[in-house]
């Protein structure tokens, strides 16, 4: 039996739209906008469940957003990783909760959990989020729960964000991309969510408004400051699959638990063959 990638969605019509998209269906502009609106409504439930009713009531919807898009609509997407191990931490960080003096107002439109849940924090149909210098006014920001590049200290343990211990039960999945350089892999569920969400975005706005050349990751926008999404994020092939609008439910990469370095190479090869 095929996996239900969208079982987390409470709204049956939203789940149907996601399945339709994964199977190669194309939504009309109004239907894509409707799907994003339903995702916004769904997110209120999902975020409440994740951060708690009291926190949600006090700090959501977040006020960490800008005005309207500079071109009237977004023209691209910037992929990010959260540099953390849980979506709860990212959701709390992007909420309206005060961060203290000297701390910036960074935000994102969406946070994608390792299970593929999409939490909309800022509605992309309405507002700019502050996620990438130089691209905020033109691009939707998608954060993916991922610790990113990890540091191995002299105690033999791995740390993210410099000083936070990485969970022991997840160490076995880490990938040594270069000698001494370890990264956390992404999950197929995160790629599924990324593809479906991006397809809805390109359909929700006027035709040709969203430009594939502007679907990038954070490192491409700020190469001197950022390294996300890192070497385990197959950005090019992922976006090629997004814009192809082809079905992808039966692809082999979906059978993996996480996308290791070998699995990423297999993903790239499979997508390339799939799009020929």
What would you report as the Rg, rounded to the nearest angstrom?
18 Å
Q: Per DSSP, what share of the residues sits in E-state strands of 2 or more residues?
A: 5-15%
**Helicity level, as a percent range?**
25-40%
Q: How would you write the strand order of the largest sheet?
A: 3-2-4-1-10
Please identify the structural class as seen in this structure: alpha/beta
Task: Report how far the terminal alpha carbons are from each other.
Answer: 27 Å
The residue-averaged pLDDT reads 95
- By CATH, the superfamily comes out as Peptidoglycan recognition protein-like
- At the fold tier of CATH, the topology name is Lysozyme-like
Tally of strands: 10
What CATH architecture do you see?
A: 3-Layer(aba) Sandwich
CATH class value: Alpha Beta
Explain this structure to me?
With 276 residues, this protein is α/β, with parallel strands linked by helices. It has one domain: 3-Layer(aba) Sandwich (Lysozyme-like). It is 34% helix and 13% strand. It contains eight helices and ten strands. The strands form two sheets. Strands 3-2-4-1-10 form a five-stranded mixed β-sheet, sandwiched between helices. Strands 7-6-5-9-8 form a five-stranded antiparallel β-sheet, with no helix packed on it. The protein is globular and about 55 Å long. The mean pLDDT is 95.
Write the layout of secondary structure elements.
Elements: H1 12-22, H2 29-51, H3 53-59, E1 76-81, H4 87-93, E2 110-112, E3 118-120, E4 139-144, E5 149-152, E6 158-160, E7 164-165, E8 175-178, E9 181-183, H5 188-204, E10 215-217, H6 218-221, H7 235-244, H8 261-274
Parallel strand pairs: 1-4, 1-10, 2-4
Antiparallel strand pairs: 2-3, 5-6, 5-9, 6-7, 8-9
Helix pairs in contact: 2-3, 2-5, 5-7, 7-8
């Amino acid at each position: 039996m095929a996996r239900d990638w969208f079982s987390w969605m409470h709204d049956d019509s939203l789940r149907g739209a996601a399945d339709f998209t994964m199977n190669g269906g194309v939504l009309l502009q109004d239907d894509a906008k409707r799907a994003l609106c339903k995702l916004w409504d769904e997110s209120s439930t999902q975020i409440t469940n994740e951060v708690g009713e009291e926190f949600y009531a006090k700090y959501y919807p977040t006020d960490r957003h800008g005005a309207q898009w500079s071109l009237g609509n977004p023209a691209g997407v910037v992929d990010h990783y959260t540099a953390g191990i849980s979506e709860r931490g990212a959701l709390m960080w992007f909420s309206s909760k005060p961060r203290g003096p000297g701390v910036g107002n960074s935000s994102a439109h969406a946070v994608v959990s390792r299970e593929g849940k999409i939490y909309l924090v800022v509605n992309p149909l309405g507002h700019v989020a502050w996620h990438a210098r130089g691209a905020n006014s033109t691009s939707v920001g998608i954060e993916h729960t991922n610790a990113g590049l990890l540091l191995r200290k002299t105690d033999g343990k791995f740390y993210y964000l410099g000083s936070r211990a990485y969970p022991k039960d997840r160490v076995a999945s880490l990938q040594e991309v270069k000698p001494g350089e370890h990264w956390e892999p992404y999950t197929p569920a995160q790629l599924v969510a990324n593809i479906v969400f991006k397809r809805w975005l390109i359909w929700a706005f006027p035709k040709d408004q969203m430009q594939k050349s502007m679907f990038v990751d954070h490192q491409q926008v700020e190469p001197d400051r950022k390294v996300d999404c890192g070497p385990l994020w197959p950005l090019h092939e992922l976006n090629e699959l997004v814009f192809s609008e082809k079905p992808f439910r039966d692809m082999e990469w979906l059978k993996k638990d996480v996308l290791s370095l070998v699995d990423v190479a297999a993903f790239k090869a499979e997508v390339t063959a799939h799009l020929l």
